[in-house]
Amino acid sequence: MDSSPEKTTKEVDIYRDTWVRFLGYANEVGEAFRALVPVSLVWATYAVATAYVSADAMDKGKKAAAEHGDNPGRTPRVAAAVVDTFVWQALASVAIPGFTINRVCAASLYLLGRTTRWPLPVRKWTTTAIGLSTIPFIITPIDRSVDYLLDSSLRKVYGGGPKHEP
């Protein structure tokens, strides 16, 4: 009997297991700084996040293609991997968190303006700090909600898809 522990090797996914994942949060950071920077810079952060989403979707498509080789049904499986990843990432990494941070920052700037006599630059920096501090708290609930949404809709059409872990 072999007493050595089984060696399990997990392939590193650069889009989920490395610093590259933080590129998906670029637009949240941009939204947090919206009160302080030109709007064009905020839109540039959306370009970075969208490039991340697209690269991850293409990567998952390549992996699905390699996994299914020349088997029948390969094309729909590859397409499902690309669509699932792109839609999930677009919702969970770009659209929903960007909107959420935008509204948190807009509401906090408005409330600070109505309830304090702080100078505008102080209110703007406080709003940015609130926006940045909100990011860690919204990630998991949004990820889980998008999983539920896709499991209840799109994934029923093509027979499931990968769960995306934060």
Automatic annotation (TrEMBL):
Protein source organism: Anguilla anguilla
Keyword set includes Transmembrane: yes
Family: Belongs to the MTFP1 family.
Annotated signal peptide: none
Transmembrane segments: 32-53
GO CC term (a single one): mitochondrion
Keyword set, alphabetical order: Membrane, Transmembrane, Transmembrane helix
InterPro entries assigned to the protein according to its UniProt record, in alphabetical order: Mitochondrial_18_kDa_protein
Coiled coil: none
Entry protein name: Mitochondrial fission process protein 1
One annotated GO biological process: mitochondrial fission
UniProt xrefs under Pfam families: MTP18 (PF10558)
Protein's UniProt keywords contain Transmembrane: yes
